[in-house]
Write a structure and sequence with these properties.
By secondary structure, this protein is of the alpha/beta class. The chain is built from 14 helices and seven strands. It has helices spanning about 25-30, 35-40, 55-65, 65-75, 80-85, 145-160, 185-190, 225-235, 240-255, 255-275, 280-290, 300-330, 335-340, 345-360, and strands at about 5-10, 15-20, 85-95, 105-115, 125-135, 170-175, 205-210. The strands form two sheets. It has a five-stranded mixed sheet with strand order 3-4-5-6-7, sandwiched between helices. Helix 1 (about 25-30) runs antiparallel to helix 10 and helix 9 (about 240-255) packs across helix 11.
Length: about 375
């Protein structure tokens, strides 16, 4: 559950509390990976994230924005005939989220664009979109299929608003609950319909990857993707304690050293946040057993917990000041998701400008 921090700010003799939606894991992740969150034009194989409400969301975005992982997931979930229609060499991550803000503790999403290999003669777009929706609750939501469809409609509506042509969307649903998927998999399963009315209904069934039903040997893809999915599958389980070293070792073998350093930090934040059986000392020891010559005892966990906490507090303080100053000045409140997607230096400058304006008005 997302923590709500109340940050007290004093102006004169009056102290007010400002509400800032910043989870501890999001603060830590932002502190350790500022380039992923704030450098919008950087070409990186990891995530460019607009808002990070939960640890599951954080790690899903980090791992599946890695283009080889995204491509591998598409290749393992679509039929050969469908894959033949997509030029995956052109796969690109698109900006934005289409999930309702109040559902972001349950769902994460990523949108990719890809060129079609065989463009229909009457098509107005040479592009298709692949939409990942990740459900990260312990049990499936009964309305997920309807939510997937509504998000696809939002994507089409945005394209219309932006003057772009409509194009096919391929939805892929990923689920890693503690129990097997039990909700409807199609609209027909969700909405009982008399047979004579069936021809008037929408027939829709997104592809579903239910990790809870798969043995590890059944999880497909290259090593990084396969072990990323194993990590998601066992994220809440005591069994993760037994296999975490193997997962880290296999991912480490498949990645360059510099990339693995980023991944090991992201995995550390994730598992220490969501798995009650793994703490910072456990993770340090696990990493030390894999990288005995490169690991400095205490360095990773200390950086996760100390640097992350300090940076997170600084970000939360800036956000709190901005919101309070805007209220005092009678200005429209900036959306907190926009503030979370802004680098600390810009936040600091915004605070300075607002304080200057407040002083000017007070004179």
């Amino acid at each position: 559950m997302r923590n709500i921090q109340y940050i007290g700010q004093k102006f004169g003799d009056k102290e007010q509390s400002v509400r800032a939606d910043v989870s501890p894991s999001s603060q830590i992740f932002a502190a350790l990976f500022p380039s992923l969150l704030w450098e919008k034009n950087r070409k990186y194989t990891g995530a460019i994230m607009d808002q990070l409400p939960t640890p599951h969301n954080n790690f899903f975005h980090f791992a599946l924005s890695h283009l080889p992982n995204a491509r591998g997931l598409i290749e393992t979930q679509l039929s050969p005939a469908a894959l033949a229609e997509l030029n995956l060499e052109t796969l690109q991550l698109e900006k934005g989220s289409f999930v309702d803000p109040d559902l972001r503790e349950k769902f994460s999403d990523l949108l990719f664009s890809v060129e079609l290999t065989n463009v229909p003669v009457d098509a107005t777009s040479k592009q298709a979109l692949v939409y990942f929706l990740f459900e990260h609750k312990s049990q499936s939501d009964p309305l997920t299929v309807l939510q997937v469809l509504s998000y696809m409609v939002r994507i089409w509506e945005k394209r219309v608003r932006d003057g772009e042509s409509l194009c096919p969307i391929v939805p892929l649903l990923v689920y890693h609950g503690e129990s097997a998927w039990s909700a409807a998999r199609s609209l027909a399963g969700l909405i009982p319909t008399p047979a004579p009315l069936d021809e008037y209904q929408i027939h829709f069934q997104p592809s579903l990857l239910d990790l809870s039903r798969l043995d590890d040997a059944e999880i497909q893809g290259e090593s990084v993707l396969r072990n990323t999915l194993r990590l998601l599958k066992y994220s809440r389980s005591r069994h993760l304690v037994e296999i975490l070293r193997e997962i880290l070792e296999l991912i480490g073998r498949a990645l360059p050293a510099a990339s693995f350093a980023e991944w090991s930090k992201a995995i550390g934040v994730y598992v220490m946040t969501v798995n009650k059986n793994i703490d910072d000392e456990d993770y340090k020891q696990t990493l030390a057993s894999i990288l005995p010559t490169k690991f400095v005892p205490g360095s990773l966990a200390d950086r996760l917990l100390i640097q992350g906490r300090e940076e997170g507090e600084r970000i939360g303080e800036f956000i709190g000041k901005i919101l309070l100053l805007e209220e005092l000045l009678g200005l429209p409140a900036t959306d907190k998701s926009d503030l979370l997607a802004t680098d600390p230096e810009t936040l600091r400058n915004r605070v300075t400008l607002l304080q200057t304006e407040l002083r000017r008005r007070s004179n």
